[in-house]
Amino acid sequence: xxxxxxxxxxxxxxxxxxxxxxxxxxxxxxxxxxxxxxxxxxxxxxxxxxxxxxxxxxxxxxxxxxxxxxxxxxxxxxxxxxxxxxxxx
Length: 89
Prior knowledge:
This protein is α+β, with helices and mostly antiparallel strands.
């Protein structure tokens, strides 16, 4: 298990076994049977350039969150002032 994780981290080709299931129901087995497992090559690589490109989208998402939170605070403050009971002095 650890060797598989190390391969993914350093960017080497990793292999995974994906079972294929036969969905044809047969009267002998009474349902679906599992076919022999096959290996599939996956090319998983860490590319710092793509990580840096992704920070732009992350920053835009965080900015959007802060804008929405700010709007909620402003609307709440305005509603509190508008609906507050008036003081008679």
